[in-house]
Every structure is written in C-alpha cells, then in structure tokens.
Specification:
The protein is of the alpha+beta class. The protein has 5 helices and 10 strands; from the N terminus they run H-H-H-H-H-E-E-E-E-E-E-E-E-E-E. The chain folds into 2 domains: 62 residues, lambda repressor-like DNA-binding domains (434 Repressor (Amino-terminal Domain), Orthogonal Bundle), CATH 1.10.260.40; 121 residues, Umud Fragment, subunit A (Ribbon), CATH 2.10.109.
C-alpha cells in the first residue's frame, strides 16, 4: 500500500470527509486532499506530519505502514472529563486506561463533554488524547486549566497585548479572554494530538 492509499484508507476509517481532513491540517481544501490521495501531488515532510497528527497515527506509520514497537501494549490513562463548552471540574485519575491508535504520542486522555468543539469533529463523549506540554502554538487545540476547572479550546496568545484567547469550534460559544493577573490562574495541561470518536 502506498502513502496515498494509506492516507485515504485512514481517513475513511476515521469517518472524515476530504473537507474535514483539510480543515484539520489547515491547508488546501478538499482538492488538495483529493490530489494527495490520488498521488497527483507530492506530500512534503511537513504535510506528512500534519496528516499523521490529524489521523491519529505516527508519521512513520503513514509513510510505511509500520506500527512500530513503541506503541504495542501501551495504554494511556483516562483521567476524567474535559469541557467542550463552559469549564468543568477536572476529575482525578479514575484508574481507567485506553488503547490508543498506533503511533499516538500522548500522556493521558480525557472524555469530552459538551458541543463547543464540534467544528473540529470533537463531540460529546469522544476521547481526546493529550500530550503534556506547557506551551502550544497559536491555533492548536489544548487542554487548559482555568483555576480548578478544565476546558478544551483553540489557544491564541497575543504577546503585544498580553492577552490569551481560547476559541471554541462552535459559533454558539464566545471566545474566552484572559490578561494581566488573570493569566496566573491559567495553565496549559497539554496539546490535543488525537481523538477517538464515539460515532
């Protein structure tokens, strides 16, 4: 199986349309994904990484189909729930573990609650895999702790104005903005690297 064939197979297995995959990688629209799947467009190393991340596999798996040994038998702890809406209490370790997709590099996972991230195909009840890191790039989806409550949002930080903004993927929810001393109560738990849909 070629990279192009594997890309299409994984997309269909995840229940994504070409438009949805293009949205998740932030590049090119449906036509770009269509051409990549047909082998009509070369896939750069940077795009390979983005496609792999969007599909919940490692770049090496997308490239070669090799599952690798690092993910075999590895299970990721499900720590509790995270709000896709208004922040909710972040539950402690429940002693539950989840088998990840092959190649997913995550430290823990959380169960999504609410509908604020449906534009990113993260629905109520989905399992979101999180890699621990205190800083994420603008536009990346992260688990963010606000006081003692956690939420899943796209993160943007304006260094000039010192404003941290958290955006939902649902127009029904207004952005959350923090500045000054408010930032002391905000902590990024980690970056969302994959999700497992209940659908």
């Amino acid at each position: 199986m070629t990279v192009c064939e594997r890309l299409r197979k994984l997309r269909l297995e995840r229940g994504m349309s070409q438009e949805e995959l293009a949205l998740r990688v932030g590049y090119g629209g449906r036509s770009a994904v269509s051409k990549a799947e047909k082998g009509e467009r070369d896939i750069s190393q940077n795009m390979l990484v983005k496609y792999a991340e969007a599909l919940g596999v490692s770049p090496s798996y997308l490239l070669t189909g090799d599952e690798g040994t690092e993910s075999i038998g590895r299970r990721i702890p499900l720590l509790g729930s995270i709000a896709c809406g208004q922040p909710i209490f972040a539950e402690e370790d429940r002693g539950v573990y989840v088998d990840p997709f092959f190649g997913v590099d995550a430290d823990f996972c959380l169960e999504a609650k609410g509908d604020s991230m449906i534009g990113a195909r993260i629905a109520d009840g989905d399992i979101v895999f999180i890699r621990r890191q205190e800083i994420v790039n603008d536009g990346e989806i992260a688990a963010v702790l606000i006081g003692d409550e956690a939420t899943l949002k796209r993160v943007y930080y304006d260094r000039d104005s010192g404003v941290l903004s958290l955006f939902a993927e649902n127009p029904a929810y207004r952005p959350m903005r923090f500045m000054g001393e408010e930032l002391n109560s905000i902590r990024i738990l980690g970056k969302a690297v994959a999700f497992r849909s209940i659908l």
